[in-house]
Design brief:
Oligomer: single chain
Distance between the termini: 50 Å
Helix content: 25-40%
CATH topology of the largest domain: Leucine-rich repeat, LRR (right-handed beta-alpha superhelix)
Radius of gyration: 24 Å
Shape: globular
CATH class of the largest domain: Alpha Beta
Number of domains: 3
Largest sheet: 8 strands, parallel
Order of helices and strands: HHHHHHHHEHHEEHEEEHEEEEEEEEH
Strand content: 5-15%
Number of helices: 13
């Protein structure tokens, strides 16, 4: 019997029966955890049950992680205060405690075994909140905008990026959360303990930083920021930096100065406002010449400024479930646009209101994906049809 974490190795061996190990079920995970933390004849005290479940969630059903964390807790007093400290500080414990050394080593070997082009793709998960499940199509477009995906004569950038994602999944570094109806990954995430490894690497390499109310001391050398929880005073604290990417997660409110300050960062390539409370895009957004990715999905933005026609490098424009009802005529200037999504959802998840398009959209010769728009004249339909026939 041979074991391997990389499915690619298994595919090279002919005539074998492959058994792909799945994470332990919650019941089996809890049983294994209790044996390691309390001994074979003991059970979990009632006052520690919730904390035990919270700790197990970080292990994600991975037996190695459950055994390691259970061994760590077996040497702790069986009191809620100490266990809460372990839960809150698992990242630093992960680096130093002897019980977690083997688990740490295995996960680090997974990272160091990656070819260079996959390392940046994996590190990007440190840009997301912990335990965050991201839509794979969104992740792929972000990788492309960040420049992680090399040009290929044979495949589109999206196809190359999808191969990268499948490779990370086959190496057991990224977990599939949900599949689509064709059997392709739809949502994915990284294991919480792998997330700790990634955070340490991103911090050491200066790859990205996340900021919230407690973390506002930022270096002027940072290039990517993930703003989580609060956007207050964040941009003011990095006004001298050369930011390339800004993403918002779990933001409760937006200060009035945020959008006006944002357009001063002229080198920005990625603006991901999905699910954030922004209500408008400033006219100055058109001056962000290097912008390649712009998403206002599920926001209250209702109008695109005319200056958007100046974003000649824009490749992704995501307006899904925003309040935008009409595209400005200047949209036809975006010759590099590859992905344009614009619709709202109706009741029961059905498509609701479409977005009206102007004449001349057929000039977008690089467009690969367009939905869900309203073309109410023959001229508009014909320009689109001719465009697709030409491709």
């Amino acid at each position: 019997m041979l074991t391997a974490r990389n499915k690619g190795i298994v595919d090279l061996i002919p005539f074998v029966n492959v058994h792909r190990l799945q994470p332990l079920s919650p019941d089996k995970a809890f049983e294994l955890f209790c044996r390691k933390a309390f001994g074979p004849q003991e059970c979990c005290p009632l006052e520690l049950e919730k904390l035990s479940c919270d700790i197990l969630r970080k292990c994600g059903g991975l037996p190695l992680a459950i055994v390691a964390v259970g061994g760590l807790l077996s040497n702790k007093n069986k009191v809620a205060f100490e266990w809460k400290q372990v839960l809150d500080d698992l990242g630093s414990q992960f680096r130093s405690d002897s019980h977690l050394k083997d688990c740490n080593k295995v996960l680090l070997e997974g990272y160091h075994g990656l070819p260079h082009h996959l390392r940046s793709c994996l590190l990007y998960f440190g840009f997301l909140p912990e335990s965050y499940s991201i839509n794979c199509a969104r992740l792929i477009r972000l990788w492309i905008a960040e420049g992680f995906v090399p040009h290929s004569k044979r495949l589109t950038s999206e196809q190359v990026a999808e191969e990268f994602l499948i490779d990370l999944i086959n190496r057991s570094l990224v977990q599939v959360v949900e599949m689509d109806f064709l059997g392709r990954p739809r949502y994915c995430r990284v294991h919480d303990l792998m997330y700790e490894i990634i955070l340490r690497k991103t911090e050491y390499l200066g790859f990205s930083h996340f900021v919230n109310r407690e973390h506002l001391n930022l270096s002027s050398k940072i290039r990517r920021i993930s703003i989580q929880g609060s956007a207050d005073s964040v941009l003011e604290s990095i006004k001298d930096s050369k930011i390339r990417s800004v993403s918002l997660f779990n933001i409760d409110r937006m200060p009035n100065s945020f959008m006006t300050t944002l357009v001063d960062f002229k080198l920005i390539k990625v603006l991901d406002f999905e699910d954030s409370p922004i209500e408008y895009l400033p006219e100055g957004v058109g001056n962000l010449f290097h912008l390649q990715y712009l998403s206002v999905k599920n926001t209250k933005v209702n109008v695109l400024p005319k200056s958007i026609g100046k974003l000649l490098n824009l490749e992704t424009l995501n307006l899904k479930q925003s309040h935008v009802s009409m595209l400005p005529i200047e949209i036809k200037n975006l010759k590099k646009l590859r992905y344009l999504a614009a619709y709202s959802l109706g009741e029961h998840g059905t498509y609701g209101r479409a977005v009206k398009i102007p004449k001349g959209l057929g000039s977008l010769i690089d467009l690969l994906k367009l939905f869900f728009v309203e073309a109410n004249t023959y001229e508009k339909v014909r320009s689109l049809a001719e465009k697709w026939k030409w491709k």
